[in-house]
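Sequence, structure tokens passed on for absentees:
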Amino acid sequence: MIPVTVHVQFETPEEVSNQIYDMLQANSNGRIKKGSNEVTKTAERGTAQFIILAEDVNPPELLAHVPLICAEKGIPFGYVPSQEHLAQAAGLPAGVKAASIAVMEITKGAQETFTQVVEAINGLKA
């Protein structure tokens, strides 16, 4: 298990991480933004529906501000263990890594999983 770092505000069980990957895959037709700069912009504008952060980001300070902005703007966010798996779930080319992804819209096919993920994460933060 990865130790909690400066950008990780709560420990995410593997089951919830897997749900996040599933939601992203089910949302394949939905728009996403990737990379810390794009994700930060969507968070600041309050336009993201959900933000996913990889725990294995190096340096972790790269994403330290994102959870704070999400909390301020009321945007749900969650963590997954791997940048590589995050990129794969988002349908990015093999070998690409993604430190963070902003899901801009939740498609009908991903709505149920999205709701489950948000409820699970709210339970973790409580």
User: Anything to note?
Assistant: Residues 52 and 75 are 11 Å apart (CA to CA). The first helix runs from residue 14 to 26. The chain is about 40% helix and 15% strand. The domain at 14-125 is CATH 3.30.1330.30 (60s Ribosomal Protein L30; Chain: A;).
